[in-house]
Amino acid sequence: QTVVTQEPSFSVSPGGTVTLTCGLSSGSVSTSYYPSWYQQTPGQAPRTLIHSTNTRSSGVPNRFSGSILGSKAALTITGAQADDESDYYCVLYMGSGVRVFGGGTKLTVL
Amino acid sequence: EVQLLESGGGLVQPGGSLRLSCAASGFTFSSYAMSWVRQAPGKGLEWVSAISGGAGGSNYADSVKGRFTIFRDSSKNTLFLQMNSLRAEDTAVYFCAATPVSSGWYYFDYWGQGTLVTVSS
């Protein structure tokens, strides 16, 4: 069974840039997996940031961007702010209607 | 404004059944694919099931296949999840999510606030 992998945790300084990644336990992520990214703070519903690799959802600041970097999907936050401190999840479309979440990355801004 | 309001969660014994509802408003329900995503306490998000717009097809995660059924009632703009043979590991907050069919329903666009299901004796 293919597992979607994310860094368990990451830290960034205020104003800094951070890139979170989303990979596969076997194989490479491409645009054909339609990677999407979600932000979630404790006790809240997820918020959609990016879909279809690099399309920002409505209202999402342009300091959030998505891409494919090497064999992984990537979410880059440029000019990190304190309220970016959240859990970030990626989703890959595996075909046959199946979507799989990564385990999530806990981002600390300090 | 798009709104998704889940209900139907609660405490149920192992082996029991529960039906979740998600009332949708602020968009053309039949033009949106709908999904259920869950989150066990202190854990990450897990996709559970999805159904296409209109009377389209549905898909399930292996963990719930054969036990859960997703369906929708367009006359009531409501999504449902019938959960049977519940197990302790089904304990989670269940979120419904909506995505425009026109954009491909590979992701989750709008989210509800979730309803808690607890499976315990």
Give a verbal description of the structure.
The complex is a heterodimer of chains A (110) and B (121). Chain A is mainly β and 110 residues long. Chain A has no helices and eleven strands. In chain A, strands 2, 4, 5, 6, 9, 10 and 11 form a seven-stranded mixed sheet that branches. Chain A is globular, with a radius of gyration of 13 Å. The mean pLDDT of chain A is 96. Chain B has 121 residues and is mainly beta. In chain B, the strands form two sheets. In chain B, strands 2, 4, 5, 6, 9, 10 and 11 form a seven-stranded mixed sheet that branches. In chain B, strands 1-3-8-7 form a four-stranded antiparallel sheet, with no helix packed on it. In chain B, β4 (32-39) and β5 form a beta hairpin. The radius of gyration of chain B is 13 Å and the shape is globular. The model of chain B has no long low-confidence stretch (mean pLDDT 95). The A-B interface holds A 34, 36, 38, 40, 45-48, 51-52, 57, 87, 89, 91, 93, 96-104 and B 35, 37, 44-47, 50, 57-59, 61, 95, 103-104, 106-114.
Strand-residue proportion of chain A: over 45%
- Contiguous low-pLDDT stretches of chain A (5 residues minimum) are none
Q: What's the tally of helices of chain B?
A: 0
**Mean pLDDT figure of chain A:** 96
- In percent, how much strand structure appears in the residues of chain B? over 45%
Give the ordered list of helices and strands of chain A.
Answer: EEEEEEEEEEE
Most strands sheet of chain B? 7 strands, mixed
Distance between the termini of chain A: 36 Å
Helix content of chain B: under 10%
Number of helices of chain A: 0
Helix percent band of chain A:
under 10%
Tally the beta strands of chain A: 11
How are helices and strands ordered from N to C of chain B?
Answer: EEEEEEEEEEE
